[in-house]
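Troubleshooting log. The previous structure file for this entry was overwritten by mistake, so regenerating from the original sequence record. Sequence copied from the archived sheet and checked twice against the printout by T.R.
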Amino acid sequence: MPEQIAMREAFGQTLVALGKRVPDLVVLDADVAPSTRAVLFAQAFPERFFQVGIAEQNMIGMAAGLSTLGFIPFTSTFACFAKRDLDQIRITVAQPKNNVKVTGHYSGLLAGKTGKTHLSIQDLAIMRTMPNMTVIAPADGVEVEKAMEAMVAVHGPAYLRLARDPSPVIFDASYRFEIGRAVTLRDGSDVALISTGIQTPRAVEAAGLLQAEGINALVLHVPTLKPLDVDAIVAAAERTGLVVTAEEHSILGGLGGAVAEVLSEHRPTPMARVGVRDVYAESAPNDALLEKYGVTARHVAQAARSHLAKWRR
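Regenerated output below.
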């Protein structure tokens, strides 16, 4: 069983580590600090932690104001609640290019049975359409830490998508994260599996299932939805001639949409999209949700298998 780390734990611990090195880093929380683990920063640096309560719009306005004074604010809330702030994010953060780091916790399907209203499967699509906004969806706890360090080092608005529960670790401490760079996790020549966020470990697992059948799948992890690594996506398409995207997000406007945009302009390639169809998801145990909405490793492998069979004919 591979090691598993909860992204929220990595988030809280990394905030504390960064706080020790970056005196201008501050955290604003909308009444969810124990859940997002921002509480760790509050305990370590109470004078740099601001509990705004259930007032997400005010939180973004406060963060924008603090950024104009030279602070580096991280905001802490669930991804579903971050969408309450879209006007404030658009006007006070993205348009003026203020140095605010927005985090969307409990993203995707696996929100711990908090209710269907708490599921956020459109956030990547929304955030990547905002000019000036960097959009990052790490694959594991290690990449969360590396991504946060990179976000602090680069001035400007950013959105960080984080999952709730422990997920498999696929990177080690030597991994070097770069904003805008995709990572080839596995080479292959038959089909390219292009994935993001915590769907990437499932894509790696799917490649293993396909390998057992003699199908060599390339796995490309795309942690940065914006800016997008166009060259890596085109290279994967050229290497295999077939592409399957996989994401724990709506197939509309997220990774699948982004890859389709790239390939239609630079290298038209047959592709299929694995993700949540155009529906609102329900609240249920994790495995049941992954199965119902067709985003397990088995579903990714089946999509690749069907895609290959179709185009080989």
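Residues 183-312 form a domain with the Rossmann fold fold (CATH 3.40.50.920). Archived copy saved in two places this time.
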